[in-house]
Amino acid sequence: MTKELMMGNDAIGRGLIEAGCQVAAAYPGTPSTEILQSIINRKDQAKSPLHVEWSVNEKIAFEVALAASYTGKRSVAVMKQVGLNVAADPFMRTAYLGVKGGMLTVVADDPGPHSSQNEQDTRLFCLQGRVPVIDPASPAEAKALIEPAYQLSEQYEMNIVLRPTTRVCHSRQSVELEAPVTLDRKSTFEPDTGRWCATPAFLPAIHKNLNAKLEQIAKEADWQPRFAKGDGRRPKTALIASGIAYANLVDLLDELGLTGTIDLYQVVLVYPLNPDFINHLRDTYESILILEETYPVLEMQLAHPGAHGKQSGALPKEGELSPDRLYTALTNFLGLEAEEIAPPAGKGQRPSLCPGCPHRTAFYSIKKCFPDGIFPSDIGCYTLGMNLAAVHTVHCMGACISQGAGFYQSYKQDGGEIPTVVVTIGDSTFFHAGIPALINAVFQDARIIVVILDNATTAMTGGQPVPHMGIAAGGRETKAIAIEPLVQACGVDFIESCDPYDQDRFENLLKNADAHTRKEDGGVAVLISRHGCLMDPAVRKSQDRPAVTISDECIGCGQCVEEFECPALSMDEGNDIARVDTDRCHGCGTCIAICPVEAIIEEDK
Question: What is the pTM of this model?
């Protein structure tokens, strides 16, 4: 048997290929991003034709995968936990109508959270949506569960959720490789209007059928909690765990010399739980410790009178269930003397935009032109514009334009001076969720400036392709969807584009955009800030700009460090002047214009 050291997301990607998945669609978002990239990298290992796409948002990814399953093919939609919010509409409906070919929705949760606007629990989402959800404890287990999950999906014609968390997605483990299956399925869609087009009259019967399926799934023998019997030293006491909490618990029990001394259950299918299992725990144990991330999904279903968990206060109600937290909960539960745990180290330097990032210059110019403006922004690396005081709100994908319109309408009601509202949104986010919001802003006559930060990639998640570049998943060329015609079709009359490195022109366009919003016959103004991401080596290579240096004119005011915040600039505390880190500087030259005494100059070659 061949083994390979894999990151969890890579293991999941390989597992999907091994199980014969033929249509895979995703929108990137940490911690799920590398799953689809793994499928792209391993596409030649598939035994059947395989379509892979970076969809423009999670709703579309889900619907593409869903339609493929209607034809009998195995499919997958991949997203992070907040992406499920975007896909919620078709996701909830699919629980009722079901699928034909096996369909998985891989939703990577982010307890902590590490890189998300919240730490919602997909298991709870599935509990509400009546969708079975599987909670793997390791990369190897995540991969191993994919084939049986597809079988379960096809047996009951239901979408099944696989829910890895950050620590499963991004940890590494030696994983066994199986030969990819050859399913030889041909697309066959059979119209069934009573099912695929189900109107409210059909839904009560469909809902009843769904409930019956869930009851059957809960009793499937292969999906029952896995039991490791203790030696009897702790009678009527048990540990219940799922996901990465189970893996950490196993390690902790070993470290404490407690392995095999207490009854232990791993719950893989966390919803629906078998009523017999629930009754067994109530009849057998007086006290149980329930370990799970992030919400008390198991605890609520078990409703055990002797439960210790999140609801009882034995575990924190937020954040990761880290090994330290697990240690505290376990030792308290078992009445063991616990060693004192050292507090976590202090936080390091705050994150900032990369040296030479074009967004930095755009944000600096926005703040300079409109010091009293309101600046809604969005999800992406450009969220770090908050460090330059040019980002005031960050809510969810696409919300910045709608919020900008809301700010305008609220101030307009007062009849006085309306502050300039400058919205910033990335190019990928604009395609994802910005277009409907822009149409609404135009239609409702919200006089705002929308700056589309076009760096030609989905930068925050690793450089996935964006529609206007004409490159699809895996590097395949496709038709480019230009931004300007889309903006014009949304009804915008003022459309300009500019490289933010050209600060004078960029600032003039910002002022012109503001004037347009205030004209009697004006409206929404859109300025496209266009410069490639410097994480792309080709962009860096194309920039023929000299390096910069600090002259003797520097007065040590710190404006270049504190307000412009380029990581290549710092203060020399010994001499109280600015200095340039030549190893980090990309020679963009944008810092030259921001020095009040013109002490930042091009290096003399």
Answer: 0.88
